[in-house]
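**Polypeptide and fold**
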Amino acid sequence: MLLKARNEPEVIAAVARLAEAGVPVLTLVTDLPATRRLAYVGIDNEAAGETAAYLLGAWLGEAEADILVSISSERFRGEEEREAAFQAALRVRSPHLGIVEITEGLGVDGATFTLARAALAAHPAIAGVYSIGGGNAALVSAFEMAGRACRVFIGHDLDADNVRLLRAGKISAVLHHDLRQDMRTACQQIMRAHGALPPGVAAPRSGVQIATQGNLVASI
């Protein structure tokens, strides 16, 4: 079983029941390390957060500013890992940049838009965005409705919305990984668990790739 789920007691208990029943569980994108899951498959979330800090620090420059960090929920461990690594790297690389966090928008446009509008109204120094949890079209709209410029916008995943926003120049870069390779790795791990493949090494975490308007493949 492939599972993307919140790090909550009910989920942890359910994974334990599956393990007792002999069902191999792999976590995808966001991990549940305190469970009996077989392995985690997905992006290196800490490397992603550090990459976002590097890009925002380099592109925003030396002037003081705030960065709006948007996460869908504090109960997804993968998003927590990205945020923690981002904050730690930013403190070292660009201590002149502040962080304004919004959370529990759940990646839904309406809720994310409301949270972003309130943050922009309360923090006039926000000049960049690190969107960890989605709802990027809503974040862009919040800036536009407020008449504010977003100088640098870093998002995650090359879905249809983000490709459109990249091509339109509404966001600066998208951090993504090879989901097809993740699926191959996950299937191999499940086959090994059932004895269909010989034992192998632990599943490596996917590397972080950076997509911009300039390197998008035309067919995406």
Notes: The first strand starts at residue 2 and ends at 3. Helices lie at 9-20, 45-60, 77-93, 109-122, 136-146, 160-167, 179-193. Residues 26 and 187 are 10 Å apart (CA to CA).
